[in-house]
Design brief:
This protein is about 80% helix and about 0% strand. The chain has about 240 residues and is an all-alpha fold. The chain has one domain: Arp2/3 complex 21 kDa subunit ARPC3 (Orthogonal Bundle). Strands 1-2 form a two-stranded antiparallel ribbon. The radius of gyration is 18 Å and the shape is globular. About 35% of the residues are buried.
Length: about 240
């Protein structure tokens, strides 16, 4: 824990950016939740005891899944596939946008406590931000009309938004910061060229299109398919609070 605090103190700018993103996402989540409740004529606390219990359980599962990363052949080694958004999307469908945002945050905090950070919080900021770009649009669509058709639409929109946002976010912010802190951009692009024939050594655009976009598309699609498959049988258990 002391090492984590030292890392935070040494990377104050990244930590402040992280906190600003968290604040912005929380505001968006609250507004979406209140709008959905107003449309449905429902008045309910954003966080209830039952919601908090589910958030804690699903966040812990998500943190474990975040650590269990799967390398892919078409991206450099610092990009990996994980299924940490799976329990979060299920919990978000059950309890709304704010539950999803809270689970994303708690997942990151748990991961930092378990494993620390190997990227001076840049990787964690990316995971939280890109994860929310998937969860919030999907929950926004589903929260206003909870039907199977809308659930499918929510997953499709969430996957597309995450793919587009994640690609732009990597090109504009994440990779430049990573290059400034850890390795030159030339080396990053060279790693892309070595594993992906569609990456050009002088083009960051080709890197994010050939590597980042497919990774997010695959992740969103797999998480969506599994969620749509398991959510209906799990929903009564999650909402009732029973475990059997």
């Amino acid at each position: 824990m002391s090492k984590l605090v030292e890392t935070a103190a040494a990377n104050t700018a990244t930590v402040l950016e992280f906190l600003a993103v968290i604040a912005g996402v929380f505001v968006a989540g609250i507004l979406l939740e209140k709008a959905a409740q107003k449309k449905q004529g429902v008045k309910e606390k954003v966080f209830t005891t039952r919601k908090m219990a589910v958030i804690g359980m699903f966040s812990a599962l998500s943190a474990v899944l975040m650590i269990l990363e799967i390398p892919l052949w078409f991206v450099p080694g610092f990009y990996k596939l994980d299924f940490s958004e799976l329990p979060i999307l299920i919990g978000t469908f059950a309890f709304g946008p704010m539950a999803g945002v809270m689970m994303e945050l708690v997942k990151i905090l748990l991961k930092l406590c378990i494993k620390g950070t190997g990227t001076a919080f840049v990787g964690e900021l990316a995971n939280f931000t890109v994860g929310c770009s998937f969860i919030l649009p999907a929950s926004a669509v589903y929260a206003f009309r909870k039907t199977k058709k809308n659930a499918i639409l929510a997953c499709v929109i969430g996957t597309l938004v995450m793919t587009i946002f994640g690609t732009i976010f990597n090109a504009v912010y994440l990779l430049p910061v990573f290059a400034r802190m850890f390795m030159p951009m030339e080396k990053i692009l060279a790693m892309g060229v070595a594993c992906n024939p569609f990456v050009r050594e002088d083009s960051l655009t080709s890197f994010v299109i050939a590597c980042v976009a497919p990774l997010n598309l695959i992740k969103g699609s797999l998480v969506s398919v599994i969620t749509l498959w398991v959510y209906k049988p799990l929903s009564p258990i999650i909402k009732s609070g029973h475990t059997k």
